[in-house]
UniProtKB/TrEMBL annotation:
It comes from Azotobacter chroococcum NCIMB 8003. InterPro entries: Integrase_cat-core (IPR001584), RNaseH-like_sf (IPR012337). This is Transposase IS3 family, IS51 group, OrfB. Residues 2-58 form the Integrase catalytic domain. GO terms for biological process: DNA integration.
Length: 76
């Protein structure tokens, strides 16, 4: 079960998605919305650079974190 921080983050991401993807276009069909959603999610996770984590994408930061955990486990 999530807490209020999870809910707030979800609402922020949903609002950003609607503002940057859904409301900027008139969509021909459901497939066009789905493809735009996939492209936006790919950008959001793999291409968007976050200054707070060293100007790298979130997916790269997550991969580095799990690599560090794996290396620590092997060293122990």
């Amino acid at each position: 079960m999530g807490d209020s921080y999870d809910n707030a983050l979800t609402e922020i991401i949903n609002g950003l998605y609607k503002a940057k993807v859904i409301r900027l276009h008139s969509w021909k069909n459901r497939e066009a919305v789905e493809l735009a959603t996939l492209a936006w999610a790919d950008w959001f996770n793999h291409r968007r650079l976050l200054e707070s984590i060293g100007n790298i994408p979130p997916a790269a930061a997550e991969a580095a974190y799990y690599r560090q955990l794996d290396e620590s486990a092997r060293a122990a």
